[in-house]
């Protein structure tokens, strides 16, 4: 008997029929003798409907009240999923984030989970019930409802799995696993049976939409075995594993990319200690996440040029903040570009194989693709290129690294 | 400066425009220096939409999960009303029933309020905020969400007013006050400026839909001044008062009626101590409310006939229970009728004026209306008649007691 946490996203619970299909799947797992916790998102379209209501009243809805509003989306789903389970003769009980004390910080709309009180869930499991928990939401120390931001339901599931020391956390989605790259861009993309946590972390953070990055971080930190599967087909999906050795022997596991990038550059900043903090501090205070960061000494040797990337939605606000900072620091100029994308090669094999970077740059050069920024880590090489080269770049790299062939 | 609790029903918050109108009204009261607590229902149609979703899954939805589902209706409204207030520059904060600890018993879908922790609300009021609370819902001792049943938002408002010792509890609705009878049945019906609590209690319990009965009981018990007003027009509405003396000098304040009645009779029950309890006990255990009760010794002197009325929705279940009871008690027969209505004369003046009952029976007899049951209290006389006589009976009594004329 295993304790399994399953997470179903908005599409998987998008209609009464789909909710009933989820209940049947959960029941099959339970009939095999497992204990089940089910974490669900709002029915697809519901969150957008609620946001639209709010925006009719306030173009920028009050963050605290927006969380009160949006959290109703998952609350509807947990009740319906519990009813569907009960209707199948499978005892079930639903809980909101607040009810199982998914304690978060105070950042409304983008809260982070701090703690979970698993006692109530455990009592229900021991009593033979399936426990259905609202994803995406929690409660702060003042008892106010918080939400984790889009995609937060994955994080909820992993956090609950960690708190319960579950045997596996299964993320059901509309794809049947993790692919070498997005099949919509490269039809030859191939499903991976396994991928390491580090690789998945890079893939997720780079815009592969299968899993939300914080959920992967959480899973890695608390060593929760994570599996991505389809909620529409049967199949083993992709297991996210802790061991490098077991992994297929490919140097590169996949190619991730991110369309929603924008870059900002501040030129001619007087070079002095603490300048990076002075530039990025105000950005962080505005709760904007910075991705790539590059700093170079300018040709004059006395000033420095500083470039970073942010999510495209945060571009206008970042530009505004950076212009103020430039003024305060006496920098020469601020430039920016939101017509860029990032493409990354990811693979643990990269560690022990030289020459990956040069092969990557050669493949891109051959297609005449100009590289704007480069950033590397132990298991990843990322390049920023003009938006128009995204598909061409991904396909060129997919072919150059033989990802369409099984390596075994 | 007064502390005022205002309650707005589903129609009053039925669209974004109406929510904005509510916010403007609340702001006007606050601008006059008052402290405001606003209790709201789900947007009209929302509760029905949610029930429909649930019934697609379970014809009789699990009561606990139904409460989880339905409570989202008011949660959406509190967020939107708070946003609308904030948009008008009026600081506001929303709370679910659980968040302000509206503690109830465990009867899902029909819970009763036991206690309210007003500390959180008071802290916000003292900080100058309008507090927006979800009506209709609470939380039991286990932390499960409960709902009070249809119309429960009125009770929430009064309970909050009582806990805060508010100066007035205003119930905004789609009528502009309490009438001598339903104007849809008798167009000559007249709005009352004041009515006593006892009279209102009888009017409400007899099916005048303006206020939910439990809210009036609560208001009477905790001496909360209650006012019914229109959320669409200006006007003073009807004040529900504690003093008899001030009341208009009419013997009769109004005529209430209830279409949703059914009566059940158990015939030939062996007459022995405890028989009433044996008959009504199982009905009460099924959470069915019994209204009129009549017991007569049968002509044989050894058995008794026992008649009572219930809500028409509870008729099939009541009949089933009563048949079992009849079998156990060795009673002769069970009969029933769900084509009946109840019409009642209500007025504190009745206490000191003889002859009201005979005038009532005479007025009905003149129209050829057969009376099936009679029940009286200090300030009320109720008769049960065939459903087809409802309108005729109400109009005959309205005229006979001169309710279309101002008595002053």
TrEMBL record, chains A, B:
Binding residues for substrate: 47, 74
Catalysis: reaction(s): L-aspartate + ATP = 4-phospho-L-aspartate + ADP
Pfam families: AA_kinase, ACT, ACT_9
EC code: 2.7.2.4
CDD domains linked to this entry: AAK_AKii-LysC-BS (cd04261), ACT_AK-LysC-DapG-like_2 (cd04923), ACT_AKii-LysC-BS-like_1 (cd04913)
Segments forming a coiled coil: none
NCBIfam families tied to this protein: asp_kin_monofn (TIGR00656), asp_kinases (TIGR00657), PRK06635.1-2 (NF005154), PRK06635.1-4 (NF005155)
The family this protein is said to belong to: Belongs to the aspartokinase family.
Name of this chain's protein: Aspartokinase
Lineage: Bacteria, Pseudomonadati, Pseudomonadota, Gammaproteobacteria, Chromatiales
């Amino acid at each position: 008997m295993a304790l399994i946490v399953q997470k179903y996203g908005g599409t998987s619970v998008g209609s009464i029929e789909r909710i009933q299909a989820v209940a049947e799947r959960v029941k099959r797992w339970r009939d095999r003798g497992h204990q089940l916790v089910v974490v669900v998102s709002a029915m697809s379209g519901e969150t957008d409907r609620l946001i639209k209501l709010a925006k009719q009243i306030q173009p920028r809805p009050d963050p605290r009240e927006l969380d009160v509003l949006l959290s109703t989306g998952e609350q509807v789903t947990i009740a319906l999923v519990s009813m569907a389970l009960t209707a199948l003769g499978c005892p079930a009980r639903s809980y909101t984030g607040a009810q199982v004390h998914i304690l978060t910080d105070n950042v409304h709309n983008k809260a982070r989970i701090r703690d979970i009180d698993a006692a109530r869930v455990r009592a229900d499991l021991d009593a033979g019930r399936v426990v259905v928990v609202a994803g995406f939401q929690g409660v702060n120390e003042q008892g106010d409802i918080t939400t984790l931001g889009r995609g937060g339901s994955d994080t909820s599931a992993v956090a609950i799995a960690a708190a319960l020391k579950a045997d596996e956390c299964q993320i059901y989605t509309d794809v049947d696993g993790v692919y070498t790259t997005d099949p919509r861009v490269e039809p030859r993309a191939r499903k991976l049976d396994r991928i390491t946590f580090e690789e998945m972390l890079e893939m997720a953070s780079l815009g592969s939409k299968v899993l939300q990055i914080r959920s992967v971080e959480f899973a890695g930190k608390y060593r929760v075995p994570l599996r991505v599967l389809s909620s529409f087909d049967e199949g083993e999906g992709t297991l996210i594993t802790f061991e490098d050795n077991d992994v297929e022997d490919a140097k590169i596991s996949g190619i991730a990319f991110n369309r929603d990038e924008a870059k900002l550059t501040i030129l001619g900043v007087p070079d002095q200690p603490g300048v990076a903090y002075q530039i990025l501090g105000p950005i962080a205070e505005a709760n904007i996440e910075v991705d790539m960061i590059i700093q170079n000494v300018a040709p004059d040797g006395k000033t420095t040029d500083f470039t970073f990337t942010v999510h495209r939605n945060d571009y206008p606000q970042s530009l505004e903040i950076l212009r103020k900072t430039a003024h305060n620091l006496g920098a020469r100029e601020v430039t920016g570009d939101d017509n860029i994308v990032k493409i990354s090669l990811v693979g643990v094999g990269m560690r022990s194989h030289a020459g990956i970077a040069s092969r990557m740059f050669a493949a891109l050069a051959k297609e005449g693709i100009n590289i704007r920024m480069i950033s590397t880590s132990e298991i990843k090489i990322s390049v920023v290129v003009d938006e128009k080269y995204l598909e061409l770049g991904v396909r060129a790299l997919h072919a150059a690294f033989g990802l369409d062939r099984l390596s075994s």
